[in-house]
Amino acid sequence: MATVLSRSNFFIWPEPNNSDIAGWPPQYLVLFLSTLVGWNLVSGYIGIHYTEQPDLSASHLARLLLAGFLWVTTSALVIFVFKLDEVSRSFVFAYMLLGGLLIALRDSAERTVARRISSYRGIRRTAVVVGNGGQATWLRQFLLDNYCPEPYTLVRLVDPTEIDSNNLAGLAVDKDQQEDTRDTTEIFVAAADIGADVAGLFPRLFERASAAHIVPGIFDTSLFKPALGRIGNVAVITLQSGALTGVDAFLKRALDFLGAVILLVVSAPLTVLIAVLVKISSPGPVFFRQERVGRSGKRIYIYKFRTMQCDAEQILEGNGELYRKYIESNYKLPKGEDPRITAVGRILRELSLDEIPQLINVLKGEMSLVGPRPVVPAEIEKYGDYASLLLSVQPGLTGQWQVSGRSEIADYARRVRLDMEYIRDQSIARDLQILFQTLPVVLSKEGAH
After folding, report:
1. Same domain membership, residue 380 and residue 265
2. Looking at residue 178, what is its pLDDT?
3. Could you give the number of structural domains in the chain?
4. Residue 270: its pLDDT value, please?
5. Residue 432 burial (C-beta neighbours within 10 Å; 0-12, 13-18, 19+)
6. Is residue 429 part of a domain?
7. Distance between CA atoms of 348 and 231, rounded to whole angstroms?
8. Position 183 pLDDT exceeds 50
9. Is residue 81 part of a domain?
10. d(CA 287, CA 278)
11. How far is CA 182 from CA 29, 143, 186, 206, in A?
12. Could you report the per-residue pLDDT of 282-318, keeping only the tens digit for each?
């Protein structure tokens, strides 16, 4: 394709010479092979083909764009490390552009063809839930409300006591349906709702289903990474918190340190200007220090530009109504109702510029660029049973909560959920995605006050 396009001046291709390998100049061949391997590694790491969860178009597009960005970055690193100085910049630009376009077209074609095949075959994805208790009822509604990756068109709830072990007709999706439905039907067994006498049905479930799933009768595992294993002949479900270890932990710390240094240097002139404005606008120190809870429950002091009057705490604690509203609004007064904030402080908060000094906390290793926001000691109880998970990671300068609405999220339980989801899914790629999302959120002033 590159040769054809080059003849029409739509692609840049070097002139042939005696050192070519199968028509490829050596350095160009190194670049091609490196980018080919790099794309497979990056796409696998990002999980653009992951289909266990609902594959919303916006979410998939974001993963595809992130994978493309990392691919281009790794390709640039290959050119630098291997000193591919004979490869022209025009070729690299055209190659990356054409490669990205072909990847996007292939991805779109795969999805379109898959949908057309399913539509042509007239396949309906149906399911039967075996159980007669609360877990089975919840599971049926969950399957109707979600798709992984295709929606279920019909989900029937079957009482296990009504199933005859010698006649599995009761497992048909429709009550009058007696034919074999293995191409379309899946069976879910709610383990919490069945007795040991039904266990003998498991080997025969495949007479009626293309797949049989056993849903364990344990607490919600959606905030953990589950894995199925085996100890001898006993199946076990392993739950992992998603904590980074080894190379990933090292890379995250390196990203934090280098990112904090670069941001401190770039923001130095702005930092000086803000310091002067804070000092001359109201009496008191330039910086504000507040106790928060860090990793493993360690108490840390985070730094901010002072945005309130010096006696802010006394004003809050001395006004019962104001303090009550402060607690009810998730330890932050509603926008425009905080009399403690100065005029300069209000601007700094809207632009999130008051957070710049926390880059010092990142350098000290007390915080990360990305992670759950550090909470005040009184907020820990809001996390309930998940408090230990919160304290298992470094708090962050920005995070999932910040790019999802920040203070506009009135329900604290929603904030807890977002923090737990980040801890479960944390990775270097996810951190980079959140960092890229932070800038437009800050510029839009979304949820900032």
Report:
1. yes
2. 40
3. 3
4. 94
5. middle
6. yes
7. 56
8. no
9. yes
10. 9
11. 48, 18, 8, 7
12. 888 999 898 999 998 999 999 999 988 887 778 877 7
pLDDT band at 261 (very low <50, low <70, confident <90, very high): very high
176 in the same domain as 303: no
412 and 358 part of one domain? yes
- Indicate the pTM of the whole model: 0.61
Residue 254: which domain range? 246-307+342-444
Quick one: 111 and 131 in the same domain?
no
Tokens of 96: 């990356």
Q: Residue 17's pLDDT is what?
A: 67
46 and 114: one domain?
yes
Rounded CA separation 259/61 (Å): 26
Q: Which residues pair with 154 in a beta bridge?
A: 126
